[in-house]
UniProtKB/TrEMBL annotation:
EC numbers: 3.1.3.48
Enzyme kind, highest EC tier: hydrolase
Taxonomy, superkingdom: Eukaryota
Organism placement in taxonomy: Eukaryota, Metazoa, Chordata, Craniata, Vertebrata
A molecular-function term among this protein's GO annotations: protein tyrosine phosphatase activity
The protein's name in its UniProt record: protein-tyrosine-phosphatase
């Protein structure tokens, strides 16, 4: 989203990190580095519908990629 809204290298978030064992474990050990200073689990009841919406979008995109790949294979590309 940042790269869609801004032109590199003028990004709001120029660096991206992959956290080994995820954000939950990172937050437990290094909460002082996190903003905001609270942690809400992904499956929290207040965000259940948002999680379902995101998962539907992911499945839709994955299905489109699979169909595109099958189409390309069928055409020899």
């Amino acid at each position: 989203m940042d790269r869609n809204a801004n032109v590199y290298p003028n990004l709001c978030f120029p660096e991206l990190y992959i956290l080994k064992n995820g954000y939950k474990e990172f937050f437990q050990e290094f909460a002082t580095f996190c903003e905001p200073r609270g942690y809400i689990q992904m499956h929290h009841k207040d965000y259940r519908e948002e999680l379902h919406m995101i998962r539907r979008k992911v499945r839709l995109v994955a299905g489109q990629r699979r169909r595109k790949g099958l189409f390309q294979m069928a055409n020899g590309h």
